[in-house]
Amino acid sequence: MLAALAPGVFGFNQTVGAFVVSGALIVLSGLVPSLHRLLTRIPVPIAQGMLAGVLIPLCLKPFTAVATIPMPALGILLVFLLGLRIVPKFAVALSMLAAVGFGLWHIGRTATWDSLEVLPQLHWVSPEFSWQAIASISIPLFVVTMASQNIPGVAVLGSFGYTVPWRASMLVTGAGSARGAFFGGHAINLAAITAVLAAGEQAGPEPRLRWRAAASSGVFYLVFGALSALIVSVASASPEGLFQAAAGLALLATLANALLGAMSDSTWRLSALATVLVAAGNLTLFGIGGAFWALVAGLLTHFIVERSVRR
């Protein structure tokens, strides 16, 4: 959703402010029971349609990149397809490694090694709060986080026998999101897909010890953060569109699941389609981005057309 925002519309200061507001909304969902009940009533097809719409432009990148960087784009596609055929679990990782390899090859060919940075540096960012950024980032991010991560995450964990304390979880993750915003982070949540990986049998035969899967992934994130400057500088020095193409391939499965969730209920199909199209078109009005208007368009379509048809 964030990657689909038009570049240059919001500065990083405004984005950080929007992340802080989103974290505060998550905290509020833990403090106000009625807000929790309202969130559980968000139509799944609309939430999934918004997610699918913002993913479509990103998932087109691997294919549009063929026109601008043919060899690297086709190479990444080939690695991804062969990975799906031979080692499906590692197909995304292999395509990312291929992108890194092409990037390093390009840097070596152009002799731009001096542009690489090894160690990250911390810079203070003062948050700025604007209603356009709150409407374009905070509210859609909050809705997506709650509807497609936190609420399904609770259900996923429950299916494996874990009882999630809703209030405590929202207070901790919301406060963590607000604090993490000052470091560029956003929306710490009960991630549904990650919950499956950490709570399922693949995380170990003993349920009470499966927390180690989540803890070890946290250690990996810390290592990734320590290498972030090197990763970003390699991406910046690489041909334009290279890493976007690899990221688009990584999101294909998420897009497929979002489209399936959006279109599976026939009574919401037209409104879900409207949500997908508005979000994919990134319609911007009054300085507010497409994700927000996608929600509005989907709900209006349902109440004007589908709800009256059902009656």
Structure description:
Helix content is 71%, strand content 0%. The chain is mainly α. Helix 1 packs across helix 7, helix 7 crosses helix 15 (290-310) and helix 9 (192-199) packs across helix 10 (211-226). It is globular. The mean pLDDT is 84.
Class by alpha and beta content: mainly alpha
Query: Mean of residue pLDDT?
Result: 84
Q: Number of helical runs?
A: 15
Biggest sheet features: none
Label the overall shape: globular
Measured by DSSP, the beta-strand proportion falls in under 5%
Distance between the termini: 34 Å
Tally of extended strands?
A: 0
Order of helices and strands: HHHHHHHHHHHHHHH
**Uncertain regions spanning at least 5 consecutive residues:** none
Helix content: over 70%
Q: What Rg, in angstroms, do the CA atoms define?
A: 20 Å
Core attributes:
311 residues, globular, 0% strand, single chain, mainly alpha
In short:
With 311 residues, the chain is mostly helical.
Layout of strands and helices, then pairs:
Blueprint: H1 12-31, H2 33-40, H3 44-59, H4 61-68, H5 70-86, H6 91-110, H7 131-159, H8 166-180, H9 192-199, H10 211-226, H11 228-237, H12 242-250, H13 252-263, H14 269-281, H15 290-310
